[in-house]
Write a structure and sequence with these properties.
Length: 74
């Protein structure tokens, strides 16, 4: 996922393979991150609320933890 900042609003825009979105209200958190309500940039209404989980890890070997073979499961 790519991250950029919109110049007019200063909000971060996150771009995935299919959708671009803005992070909105924090809904909760768990053991490895927080869940946020997101607003899609596209005009398409999916007909249901959309959320995204942002992983948070402050320990050592952060890149190794999230880029391991186990994280690439489908």
């Amino acid at each position: 996922m790519k991250e950029s900042v919109q110049k007019m609003s200063g909000r971060k825009k996150y771009k995935g393979e299919r959708y671009s979105f803005f992070r909105d209200k924090k809904l909760g958190h768990g053991g490895n991150g927080a869940v946020y309500d997101v607003k899609l940039e596209e005009k398409d209404d999916l007909g249901f609320p959309v959320v995204a989980k942002f992983f948070e890890y402050s320990g050592d070997d952060k890149e190794k933890r999230y880029n391991s073979v186990n994280c690439n499961r489908k």
